[in-house]
Specification:
7 helices, globular, mainly alpha
């Protein structure tokens, strides 16, 4: 039996991921479950899947594993809650502001320095973020609390940025540990 082409498999996974991400907000809005119920069901299905398929290396779990897990939980809660309260576009855009927080916090958390191009990106995204926070839109059936939803989505961007930094720290700690052995 022929082995599948790794590039074709990767492209298929990207397409599947894009489909799931782009339909996720609509599914969240369409269901009558609360945000907390959705987060709970999602975790109930995702945790065993990740444990069985990814089989994490427990030796690499450093001191940042708990903060990373908490940041992941906060990210999921904020994203789903924001989708229930504001428009999908506002929630998703503000959630994707995580690089702002990475740029601002990585010097402190990861000992990384800014580059000049980071400031240009930072200014553009912060401008867009500010516009959405100041005017997130009118309340509607699918966006009953747009202002609160925008704030929660921005907090989701912060938690996602923290998750990225904690995961980077865990990866560094693991690679440094493997060099020493």
């Amino acid at each position: 039996m022929a082995q599948p082409n790794p590039a074709a498999r990767a492209y298929g996974q990207i397409v599947a991921c894009a489909f799931l991400i782009s339909t996720g907000a609509a599914v969240i809005k369409a269901t009558s479950f609360s945000a907390w119920e959705i987060v709970g069901w999602r975790g109930l299905f995702c945790a065993p899947f990740l444990l069985l398929l990814c089989r994490p290396n427990r030796k690499s779990w450093g001191t940042f594993i708990l903060p990373a897990a908490l940041a992941h939980a906060a990210t999921a809660i904020c994203f789903i809650s924001a989708q229930k309260m504001t428009t999908a576009a506002t929630g998703i855009f503000l959630h994707y502001t995580s690089p702002i927080y990475v740029i601002l916090l990585s010097p402190w958390l990861l000992d990384e320095r800014f580059e000049k191009k980071d400031f240009v990106y930072l200014a553009i995204v912060m401008g867009g973020m500010g516009l959405l926070l100041v005017s997130p839109g009118e309340a509607s059936a699918t966006a009953p609390r747009p202002v609160l939803g925008a704030v929660v989505a921005a907090l989701g961007g912060l938690s996602w940025g923290l998750l990225a930094m904690f995961m980077r720290k865990l990866a560094r700690d693991e690679s440094e540990g493997s060099d020493a052995t």
